[in-house]
Each structure stands twice: as structure tokens, then as C-alpha cells.
Amino acid sequence: MVLAKVIGTVVATRKEASMDGLKFLLLRQVDTDGKESGGFVVAVDAVGCGVGEMVMYASGSSARQTKMTENRPCDAVIMAIVDNWEVGGKYKYQK
Amino acid sequence: MVLAKVIGTVVATRKEASMDGLKFLLLRQVDTDGKESGGFVVAVDAVGCGVGEMVMYASGSSARQTKMTENRPCDAVIMAIVDNWEVGGKYKYQK
Amino acid sequence: MVLAKVIGTVVATRKEASMDGLKFLLLRQVDTDGKESGGFVVAVDAVGCGVGEMVMYASGSSARQTKMTENRPCDAVIMAIVDNWEVGGKYKYQK
Amino acid sequence: MVLAKVIGTVVATRKEASMDGLKFLLLRQVDTDGKESGGFVVAVDAVGCGVGEMVMYASGSSARQTKMTENRPCDAVIMAIVDNWEVGGKYKYQK
Amino acid sequence: MVLAKVIGTVVATRKEASMDGLKFLLLRQVDTDGKESGGFVVAVDAVGCGVGEMVMYASGSSARQTKMTENRPCDAVIMAIVDNWEVGGKYKYQK
User: Which of B7, C77, C95, E32 has the most CB atoms around it within 10 Å of its CB?
Assistant: First the structure.
């Protein structure tokens, strides 16, 4: 899984029918200090998160292992909202 | 999923039989401002889009989760045409 | 799928039994002008192509969606020979 | 699989229900000398390891081939703790 | 598939039970001249090769399409030992 920040929302009316009702969020990867520093990806929200939150997302076929994304052309899913992480005994990010 | 712009078309007469009738589009990834800036990929069109449109595509096995691409050697599919996206409360792209 | 040029052949006598009889080709990715510019990959030929031809290949589990590669440890397959592609209304490559 | 060092822990209370009870570890890839030098990833621990240990992780659908991660939206799993590795007849890392 | 050289061995006593008995080899990717130049990966040996040999490996779910790796958390498998390859009518590598 990859740590990322929710930085925006994407609207797409015309889409594969099975994607109807899903929420698309724009994510940017962060480094271990929580700074935005990596690439961008659009992920389906499976946990009810909002812009500004720090999340984890899963890619590839693993992104289809939720009820919301099963059998759908979805290759990235937010599967957790992050409370905190610790490196070397210190919190690097806290909600 | 990845945001990309449809920049061209690809024609291939001789191909794996299961790919007959599919439309191949050339996509270039865009940044969060909608500028072409990333790599290129050829994707199958599952939503009826055209050159110049902003789309989302799914990769890997997720690219086979549409009726059009099921069980086919297709690893990238356009599964949505993008209307707009918003970052920091501002529209960064509008159709 | 990715656009690539067939630049060579690979011979491997000792291999997983299920790979017997398959032809391994060395591919180099090309840019939208058809110039060799990207990485290298070895792909199984599912369409009967030869050195020098411009092709498309599929990666990952999608590379196993042909009769030739089904259930085999193959992660890249040439699934089409490219006739031409067009960007901005101009042919960038023609066979 | 990729060699990596466990450098931290990630806590996420709100998550896809199927991920309950799993331990999320923050890994950094190492080079062949065992120095941290590559990217970061969050992986589920399937072997009971701790911060500071050198491990191998598997990605993609292969990350779901453990009892702990089966059918879950998990795309990276620690599937081994590394004792040592050898390059050119010399140990480059020993536990 | 990717061309790589076997440069070392990895020992891991504590691991996911299904990985027992598998041999882990450290591979480095090579360029088309056979020079070590790319990234490193740990792969399971499905063909009985040794350090110093030039091989091909398959990644992702395709790495599980051998009897040895089926249903295991393995994302890279050596599925062939390379005899030679040719680019532009010249051997670039011969065993």
C-alpha cells in the first residue's frame, strides 16, 4: 500500500456503467514525513474519506477486493484512513 | 486510475483475434493542471471517446473488467470521460 | 498496451516446460514519433511478427489472455502488429 | 520479491473491514549492501517481524497468497524475514 | 519477461510456510549488451540455475504460473536460462 494525501475530487459523468455511484478522489503520494512529493493517482474511496485526509491506497487487482470495487475496472482504492505513523520511535505524522 | 488526454489513434490490422473491433487510442498522461507531462500508453476505448478528450484509464487486470475487454490481452482501458477535477477548492480542469 | 519495435530474438533451451515452442522477441519501447527511446522487454510473439516490425504488447496477467500464453509464466505478449498511428491529424508512423 | 528494511509502523483505525487485525509496517527498499536507498511502501506483516528487521515483500496479487491477506485489498505483504544474502561469494548482509 | 544475471543467493528461515523449500536468487537486470545496469530483484528459481547465469524472469501473477510457485506469495520467478540473444543480426550475448 502507499501513503498519500487526498488533494482533490474528480467528476466523470460518462463512464463504464459499473463505476456508477463511486467517488473518485485525486491523491498525491507523500514521503515518510508526510510531505507531498510523489506521483498522482485517482482512486475510488471505499472508506468515506475527504479532501485533506491522509490515506493508504492499494493498486492493481488488490484494488478490486472491496465490495464497492469488486469486478469493476478500478485499479486503485483507498482502503484506510491513516491515524499516524512512526519511524525510529517518533511520530512522523499524526491526524 | 490515471488522468490522461487522448492524443491520437492506433491502427493494427493483424492482431490477436479477440481484439477485433476494439478501438485503440493513444493517451498521454497529464499533471494536476491538465498539462500533458507524463508517459504514453495505448488503451482500448470502453466509453466512446474521441481525440482531444480528457479521460481516466485503468491498467493491469482491472483493464479487463469491462464487457468489451473481458478475457482479452488488454492491459489499459479508458473507463471514464472526465468532466472536471478540483484541487484546493478550485477547478483545475473543466470540459 | 505499449508501442515497441522488435529489435532482436532470445534463445532459451532450458526453461519452464510450459514455455516450450514459444518465440521470445526482444522489444524496445518507442516514443510517439516511433523512435526507440524507452526500456527493453522480452515478449512472447502471439501474432507472428519479425525483427524490425512495430508492435503493441500487453503486460501482466493480460499477457496470458491468448491461447499461446494461457496459464504460462509469461508477463509480456505481442498482441498486435501496428499499421500506423496518428497524432494531431498527422501520421507519426506508417508501416 | 524485494529486499527492504522495516523502518516503522502505521496505524489506521478506519479501514476496509477485511483489513481489521492486520499489522501495517512501513518498509524502505535497500540496495545489495543492505543500505536504505529505494522507495517506501506499506506492507502487511504475515511473518511476525519487527522494526529494524530485514525482510522480503511480495507485491500485487501475489501479496494476497497468504491466509492473512487472502481476498483483502492488500497489495504488499512481508512473506519472509531475511537471515543473510551473498553476492560474489561474500555475505553482504547477515542478521 | 526481463533479462537478468543471477548475482547472489538469499537465505530466509522464517517465512510464509508455503515458501518452504524454494530457492531465492538475487538478480540484477542487464542491458541489451548483457551488462548489469538495472535494478535488483529476488526471484524464485523454477529452472535450476546458478549464480553467474543469464536468465529471464517473469513478474506479478505470471510468476505464479509454475508448479513450484502456484498459489504462493511469489511475485518473481526465473522461468528460463538464456542461451543467447541477437540484436541487428549480431549476438549480443552467448552462454
Answer: C77
